[in-house]
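Hi U.,

Before I forget, here's the chain from the pilot set. I'm dumping it here mostly so it's searchable later in email.
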Amino acid sequence: MATIGAIGWLDLTVDDAETTRSFYEQVIWWTSAPVSMGDYDDHVVHDSEGNAVAGICHRRGPNSHLPPAWLPYVNVESLDAALEKVVTLGGAVLDGPKDAGDIRYAIIRDPAGAFLAIASP
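Structure:
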């Protein structure tokens, strides 16, 4: 079970995921594996213990609208309830909710303009 309020994942969406992936592999000593997106590959990144911790993605297809910044995914108990609060409190739902494996997630913008992804099992 995911810890509510903890960062469960990180994604980075950039124009050139290959070069960026290589940069982080050399700087942080991450390893990566390709994930087929059809006609191109994104990359899942692993820490030194082999745990999948992040994704480095091309800004194409479903990611074409995302900014080139690290996007943390914070675990919430109920995605639907959290999204209602986002709107009520002056934020915006920018993308989703969507399913990805065993989680549902959405990308939000808070009232100050910052982006965040929230996710629930």
